[in-house]
Write a structure and sequence with these properties.
DUF4437, 0% helix, 6-stranded antiparallel sheet, DUF4437 domain-containing protein, disordered C terminus, 2 domains, RmlC_Cupin_sf, Jelly Rolls, mainly beta, 20 strands, RmlC-like_jellyroll
Length: 246
């Protein structure tokens, strides 16, 4: 479990499917399921999602069958508590359905904002047709950095897929994660290695306000992540494979 909203039941999770796992009976959930394969492969119906394969399955979407012959680790987001629907129907909103996107395909885009530091590209995976919520991957070059803090009017969520990200509360490594509320100032950031990140917004599309003044930037910041209750006993120290920086 990466994050959980106890009121709505929405969550961000890492799900591990063991080798040989199968779900042969048709099934639909009462919540949206958004998935991004980190390792292995997962088949949903006739669609096989390999590494960095993505899908957004709205509530009510019928999965005829699911399987993971060799196992998989899947970054999965639910819009509510993921319960099986009482009856399997075809009442899905097709406008919100994204059956498959391969993040290895498609072009990179850039020039998001005049103050956005150069040296990065973005690939959109999804934009909701009603509220504009977005999911995308962002890749940056090694030694890229900026000196301005920023904020957004929406919730911003990130999972670090590869590389390192240096910020004002420490160094994040592959497997690190944050969930940031709206209007929260953060940054500046840089990456000594270059990196690949998966981002989501909740509450609308991404827009950014930058501070007018630049700040000092350190490639070796003090490691002091902001942690939720239950992780503070880790003492704010990184461990092998990454750190939980919120």
């Amino acid at each position: 479990m990466l994050s959980l909203d106890e009121e709505s039941g929405s969550s961000s999770t890492l799900l591990r499917y063991p080798a040989g796992w199968r779900q042969d009976d048709p099934q639909a959930l009462t919540a949206d399921e958004e998935l991004f394969v980190l390792a292995g492969s997962l088949t949903v119906g006739d669609v096989r999602h390999e590494r960095y394969g993505y899908a957004h399955l709205p509530a009510g979407y019928v999965r005829p069958a699911m399987a993971s012959p060799h196992g998989a680790v899947v970054l999965t987001f639910f819009s509510g508590e993921p319960r099986a629907a009482a009856a399997v129907t075809r009442g899905v909103d097709e406008a919100r359905l994204v059956e498959a996107v391969d993040a290895f395909d498609g072009p990179w885009t850039g020039n998001f904002h005049p103050r956005f530091p150069s040296g990065a590209g973005r690939k959109f995976l999804r934009e909701d047709p009603y509220d504009g919520e977005q999911t995308w991957v962002l890749g940056t070059m090694p030694l890229r950095w900026g000196r301005r803090a920023e904020k957004h009017p929406v919730v911003e969520e990130m999972y670090l897929l590869a590389g390192e990200l240096v910020g004002h509360v420490g160094t994040m490594r592959a497997g690190a994660y944050f969930w940031r509320p709206e209007e929260e100032w953060h940054g500046p950031f840089g990456s000594p290695t270059g990196n690949l990140m998966l981002f989501r917004t909740k509450g609308g599309p991404l827009s950014t306000v930058y501070e007018d003044d630049e700040r000092e930037f350190s490639w070796q910041p003090e490691h002091r992540p902001i942690l939720p209750p239950g992780l503070t006993e880790l003492g704010g120290k990184p461990w092998d494979g990454g750190c939980a920086c919120y």
